[in-house]
Amino acid sequence: MASIPLQVTIPAVAAVAAYANARFLAYYDLELLRAIVPTVLGGAWKRYRDRVNLFYQLENLATTKSSENRVFLRFEDRAYTYAQAYDTVLRYANWLKDRRGVKRGDLVGLDFQNTDTFIFLVLATWAIGASPALLNYNLTGNPLIHCVNKSTARLVLVDPVVAGNVSEDVRSALGGVIFEVVTPALEQEMLAMDSVRPADELRSGFKDKDMAMLIYTSGTTGLPKAAIISWAKAATVANFTFRWLGTNVNDVYYTAMPLYHSTAMLLGFAHTLAAGATFAMSRKFSTSGFWNDVRKHNATIIQYVGETCRYLLSAPPIIDPVTGEDLDRKHRVRAAFGNGLRPDVWNRFKERFGIETIAEFYGATEGTFATWNKSRNDFSMGAVGRSGSLYNVIFTREVAIVEVDHETELPRRDPKTGFCTRAPRGEPGELLFRLPPGDINSRFQGYYGDEESTSKKVMRDVFSKGDAWFRTGDVLRWDNENRVYFSDRIGDTFRWKSENVSTAEVAQVVGLHPAVLECNVYGVQVPSHEGRAGCAAVVLKPSCLVQTSGEAARAPRPTDDTVKSLAEHVKRGLPKYALPLFLRVVPEGGLQATGTNKQQKHNLRSEGVDPARTGEDEVFWLRNGTYVKFGVADWKELNAGNVKL
Ligand SMILES: *[C@@H]1O[C@H](CO)[C@@H](O)[C@H](O)[C@H]1NC(C)=O
Ligand SMILES: *[C@@H]1O[C@H](CO)[C@@H](O)[C@H](O)[C@H]1NC(C)=O
Ligand SMILES: *[C@@H]1O[C@H](CO)[C@@H](O)[C@H](O)[C@H]1NC(C)=O
Ligand SMILES: *[C@@H]1O[C@H](CO)[C@@H](O)[C@H](O)[C@H]1NC(C)=O
Ligand SMILES: *[C@@H]1O[C@H](CO)[C@@H](O)[C@H](O)[C@H]1NC(C)=O
Ligand SMILES: *[C@@H]1O[C@H](CO)[C@@H](O)[C@H](O)[C@H]1NC(C)=O
Ligand SMILES: *[C@@H]1O[C@H](CO)[C@@H](O)[C@H](O)[C@H]1NC(C)=O
Ligand SMILES: CC(=O)N[C@H]1CO[C@H](CO)[C@@H](O)[C@@H]1O
Fold first, then answer.
1. Which CATH number describes the domain made up of 390-485?
2. Ligand 7: distance of its center to the CA of 623 in Å?
3. Which of 416, 423, 373 is nearest to 399 (CA)?
4. Matching InterPro entries, A to Z (predicted)?
5. How far apart are CA 401 and CA 483, in angstroms?
6. The whole model's pTM is what?
7. Mean pLDDT of residues grouped by 10 in the chain (645 residues)?
8. Number of the ligand closest to the Cα of 162
9. Domain 492-639 has CATH 3.40.50.1390
10. Which of 298, 300, 330, 331 to mutate to test ligand 4, by most ligand atoms within 8 A of the CB atom?
């Protein structure tokens, strides 16, 4: 598996070098090694020179002749060179320090959509040895109170566009915190500060494991958790990814994913900074605006997450209003980089938009490792990682896929030995990463001020007494050809007829049906049945719906043919126990997603198929081999125990 320990030590590099002479070195290994070795050595050099702070990367680029006039940032109609951005950052830093009393080691809350100001403020906090806490701008009320409180920030700077989300109840619940909207007038005040470089002392003495920033996990259930992103993690992820993708100074990296999340912040922004390239962004994602912005900024690399590519695929082609030309392939994008691209979208996306390379990675914000695959063909379509034998030799020590107990949602322990068992090749299991048992913190910094959540991610005595491993909560399969596939999130897999059903794998099959634009699969409780029955919530192509002209806002109704062919399709593609017994047709935009376009399941799951809770949506169930309407009478029959599924 192509796994990148975020703190590989020099001895590991030496080991790698030794293996590099061996005959069995595969091409993918070489590609990865070319990225890893300089990253590791670069990290050691930074530590040695007391320069772990990413501010120094901006400074180097801004004060070197060959790069100072290169464009660093593009946003809307504005562009800043490295030198201009550096000048602005120094002024903002001095404002934070002198006018707001922010000190070395403090946290500053930033509640922003993607803007140039947001980027400058992140760099400005680093410039004075402080760290930003990146708040999800969409949060309001209790979740926002919780996130700000957890961060311990005394100052929260707010984007004027989202100021409405910081309501009076938030301000009064957090009496000691100052919320300040960054109006154009306030920005003028910041810009009027002197452009003096804050002293090195403010940034000196920080260690690899110290916090660069706080990023909140989107927390599909419960309140967000504040993951500590260390300097080592930020720099290693950034440096490894730019080397692996081959990002160079002429590249323009474009993202519309929110910068408060690690994907855009680390794999987008920090990546571009490490490469010394140009970073372009949009305020937020919009299906209709995406390609126009890509063209406007001359982007060469685009970033996607989750269902982003599916949304882009489902949109009609953009036609040039003047020439009538189809603009789908009119761009300079050479690579799409991200995570969560489903196999059913992979090829269609590449073909329609003419994109040569898809680079898919897997990793969690708070995780300690990641896996990578860059693909120009479809051999590994849908795989999140691929590696050669070299990696397997070195990293089977560091990585394990273990059998899971789906009742307790924990890795299963052998009743006799008390230890966990590695899943056989090709079988799904939870992905674990080894941690140094005596010094967990050096590799996994955990959640800020949240011992309990932190310790839940660490498992001890897994294969032997005293060892320690990081739990990803993700179920993966690692096949005999060394391809790694994402199977499911733990907790999403459900039990039916004594079998374990992976929702992600079922969704992949359903998603391949031509009528399906988007699909979300989950298990629902049905009266008088053990376990959970599969339910697929789908958004269908308009051409597969009964046209009900005149009637506004009616629930979409699939045609009989569509429903029939969906039943045939799932029966062909899935084992009997995994068939979605229920089909819920939702209107476009009806499937909830996070700010990074990742699907959410919990609401759908709790609504189940009770007609009182599914609203206007039409629900079907599989009877005698085909989908038929499911209604109140059927629900009553189920409740009365008259139906066996
Ligand atoms: C990351 O790359 C930059 C630019 O090549 C380099 O200056 C820096 O030392 C590297 N940092 C780490 C931690 O590898
Ligand atoms: C928060 O602000 C954004 C941007 O104005 C808006 O789209 C969103 O609906 C707001 N959220 C709430 C819960 O009001
Ligand atoms: C903030 O956190 C502190 C310490 O965990 C807690 O005592 C306090 O109740 C929290 N305040 C709010 C408003 O949630
Ligand atoms: C994009 O490229 C075109 C053609 O070379 C050029 O005219 C335009 O100025 C470029 N736009 C930006 C934002 O660099
Ligand atoms: C399903 O998961 C349970 C609990 O982890 C396990 O005991 C059982 O063997 C699994 N069943 C199959 C068919 O894999
Ligand atoms: C933002 O909040 C609004 C209101 O709570 C919600 O409808 C919307 O889905 C949220 N958007 C994102 C991207 O989280
Ligand atoms: C299924 O087929 C059987 C036999 O043809 C029939 O008796 C039964 O009513 C059918 N069930 C449904 C739900 O259509
Ligand atoms: C980096 C990496 O592992 N890339 C591989 C991803 O998968 C494709 C197809 O198998 C390979 O060609 C890449 O080398």
1. 2.30.38.10
2. 8
3. 423
4. AMP-bd_C, AMP-bd_C_sf, AMP-binding_CS, AMP-dep_synth/lig_dom, ANL_N_sf
5. 13
6. 0.78
7. 36 37 40 58 65 92 96 98 98 98 97 98 97 94 93 97 95 95 97 96 89 83 83 83 88 96 92 96 95 97 90 89 91 89 79 87 52 46 50 64 86 94 90 85 83 88 93 81 75 86 89 90 90 93 80 76 94 91 90 75 89 92 94 92 85
8. 2
9. no
10. 298
